[in-house]
Every structure is written in structure tokens, then in C-alpha cells.
Amino acid sequence: MKTTIAFNIDTSTLQGCTDDYLAALWYIAQTNPATNDNHDAGVAVEHIGREIIRRWMRGVPVPLWNIQGRDHYHQQLIRFARWNGQEWEAAQ
Fold first, then answer.
1. What DSSP assignment string belongs to 3-23?
2. In this structure, what DSSP letter does residue 53 have?
3. pLDDT tens digits, one per residue of 7-56
4. For 86, what's the count of Cα atoms within 13 Å in the CB-facing half-sphere?
5. How far separated are the first and last CA of the chain, in Å rounded?
6. Which of 5, 45, 2 is nearest to 26 (CA)?
7. 43 within 8 A of 34, measured Cβ to Cβ
8. pTM of the prediction?
9. Helix/strand/coil for 65
10. Nearest to 29 by CA among 53, 47, 13
């Protein structure tokens, strides 16, 4: 038997889901067949990961978005290109 199962992930509801469901979403998002350059897949994974960290650090108020691993690469990218909402375009 062969079957296809699709998942819709609403990142705006992550705070209300159970720990078990959040863990399942993490695995689903990580095994998503999307390529690494897929913007929406990357954003979804990042939101799920941040919710996992937020719960893990529940007792300690900590800023989750101040410094990110992609910041350096993003700063280099925007020197040469701009995001138009769909794709990157060469900067003028």
C-alpha cells in the first residue's frame, strides 16, 4: 500500500498545542521534502523551533529573536539583493 499524507501547519496556533503535537510538528517540518531555499518551509521550522525553546525556557524570560544564526548571511545578502515578496532581485 502507498499513501500520501499532507499536513497544514498554522504557526499562529503553536502556543496552544500540546507538547506531543509540537514534537510531531517538528519532525514533520524537518522531513518536509521542500528544498532548503523554500522560504515558507524555513519560516515554519523556525517558528516551531522557537516555540519549543520558549517552552523549554518557560521559567526564564528570554528574548528569542534578537540574534539569529542567519543574521550574518542575511546582512551579506541584502548588500547585493532585495526581497520583493516572491524572490530575491539584484540590488540597483
1. --------GGGGGGS-HHHHH
2. H
3. 889 999 999 999 999 999 999 999 998 988 899 999 999 999 999 999 99
4. 0
5. 53
6. 45
7. no
8. 0.68
9. coil
10. 47
